[in-house]
């Protein structure tokens, strides 16, 4: 089982399948809901309503992107601090949703990332349009970072079926000990990838029979899956690849150059993304985004903001927040949205923020940036404001209904890109993208043919 310590930084660094913790706040914060009309006589504006915290309700919560430890030790107690008369039941993901649907035990809330929408909610027809509940409760959606709402709408044809809990954030880790050893100035917030490349050139060298590198990475995830241009692998309107483009070329050339610095050599194993991510923890690499702070024990380190491409300044890596989705089978939808809305309140978000769980708010205060992740064992005292330096990345354009979901596209592109810096192969970027395009298009055609 994942430990609580690992839970606290897993969502800080990873996305797509990572999880987050939730907290408590006061009844005066603006994230709660209710059903009575109330207005501010001074401003004339509608005031966010407060829920009836004493009214009993039973809620079952499916822990699709959570686990029982988090629910029992953190989530449930904190929700009950605000709603003491809510009876909460956590359902582990080992209980298959298909079985729950078949037995009539559909949960009220599903905790999950964007991938949960097509793979669970839409697959079993559990999506609930919350527009009417949001309207009657006067929940202020403008408080929420619109990018995260758009992430959800991307899969739901524009419907809001839940509210976000925590946002995905990233930072560039750097080995201070190695920088000091070679007399190289530390990285700074706000760098471009060109700046990072110049630093990497100074660090990449062979001394005492040890090959030092300026940069290492779980490169397929940080540069492709979470790419800062929000580029898709498949075309939005047609059944064809979308990888042979100028933007993909810019992005791929922008990171492959780190692997072609003088003295570096990679075979099919050492260049593999899952092997490359291990290098930084050995102390022989200067910089890396992918975080394993529990392994960074033999050297001093700190963090700065993730470098960005000059073509897209301040653009963050593309990831997924975690949501509380409310199902259409819930018999306590009002109580469910009370809980989901409460978790977006300013005070709750501030408390989560200290645990390294990034706020989903449209406006993040300077204090939040300074206190982010400061309760963390690993990041306390680090430059954790770097996690919140860049702007959230948007989803790519939604694909038209009925198009083939060719899931092997990413793997094909990764394999062709790795050839660019694999000894004995070393294809150029145009060849890599053209070959990937051809293979993806062939795969799409074969998948379509198999369904006829």
TrEMBL record:
Organism: Paenibacillus hodogayensis
Secretion signal, residue range per the UniProt entry: 1-20
Signal listed as a keyword: yes
Record protein name field: ABC transporter substrate-binding protein
Record bears the keyword Signal: yes
Pfam families in the record: SBP_bac_1
Positions with biased composition (Polar residues): 41-53
Domain of life: Bacteria
Family matches, as InterPro entries: Bact_solute-bd_prot1, SBP
UniProt keywords, alphabetically: Cell membrane, Lipoprotein, Membrane, Palmitate, Signal
Chain positions covered by the region annotation Disordered: 26-54
Residue ranges, compositional bias (Low complexity): 26-40
């Amino acid at each position: 089982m994942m430990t609580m310590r690992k839970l606290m930084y897993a969502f800080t660094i990873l996305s797509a399948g990572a999880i987050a913790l939730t907290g408590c706040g006061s009844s005066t914060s603006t994230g709660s809901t209710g059903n009575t009309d109330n207005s501010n006589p001074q401003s004339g504006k509608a005031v966010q309503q407060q829920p009836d915290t004493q009214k009993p309700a039973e809620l079952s919560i499916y822990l699709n992107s959570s686990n029982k430890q988090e629910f029992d030790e953190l989530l449930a107690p904190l929700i009950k601090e605000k709603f003491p008369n809510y009876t909460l039941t956590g359902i582990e993901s080992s209980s298959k949703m298909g079985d729950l649907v078949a037995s009539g035990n559909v949960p009220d809330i599903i905790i999950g990332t964007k991938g949960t929408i097509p793979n669970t909610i839409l697959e079993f027809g559990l999506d609930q349009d919350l527009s009417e509940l949001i309207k009657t409760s006067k929940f202020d959606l403008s408080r929420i970072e619109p990018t995260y709402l758009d992430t959800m709408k991307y899969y739901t044809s524009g419907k809001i079926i839940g509210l976000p809990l925590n946002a995905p954030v990233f930072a560039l880790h750097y080995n201070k000990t190695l920088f000091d050893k070679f007399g190289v100035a530390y990285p700074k917030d706000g760098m471009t990838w060109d700046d990072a490349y110049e630093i990497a050139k100074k660090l990449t060298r062979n001394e005492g029979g040890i090959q030092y590198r300026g940069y290492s990475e779980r490169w397929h995830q940080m540069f492709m899956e979470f790419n800062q241009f929000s580029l898709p692998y498949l075309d939005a309107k047609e059944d064809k690849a979308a990888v042979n483009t100028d933007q993909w070329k810019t992005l791929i050339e922008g990171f492959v150059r780190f692997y072609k610095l003088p003295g570096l050599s990679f075979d099919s194993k050492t260049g593999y993304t899952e092997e490359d991510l291990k290098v930084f923890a050995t102390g022989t690499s200067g910089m890396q985004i992918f975080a394993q702070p529990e392994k960074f024990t033999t050297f001093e380190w700190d963090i700065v903001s993730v470098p960005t491409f000059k073509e897209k300044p301040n653009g963050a890596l593309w990831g997924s927040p975690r949501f509380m989705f409310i199902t259409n089978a819930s018999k306590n939808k009002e109580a469910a949205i009370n809980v989901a809305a409460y978790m977006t309140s300013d005070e709750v978000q501030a408390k989560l923020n200290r645990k390294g769980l990034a706020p989903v708010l449209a406006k993040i205060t300077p204090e939040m940036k300074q206190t982010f992740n400061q309760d963390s064992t690993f990041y306390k005292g680090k430059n954790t404001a770097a996690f919140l330096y860049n702007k959230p990345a948007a989803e790519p354009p939604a694909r038209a209904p009925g198009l083939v979901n060719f899931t092997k596209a990413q793997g094909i592109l990764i394999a062709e890109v790795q050839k660019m810096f694999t000894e004995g192969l070393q294809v150029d970027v145009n060849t890599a993208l053209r070959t990937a395009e051809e293979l993806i298009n062939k795969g799409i055609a074969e998948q379509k043919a198999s369904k006829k």
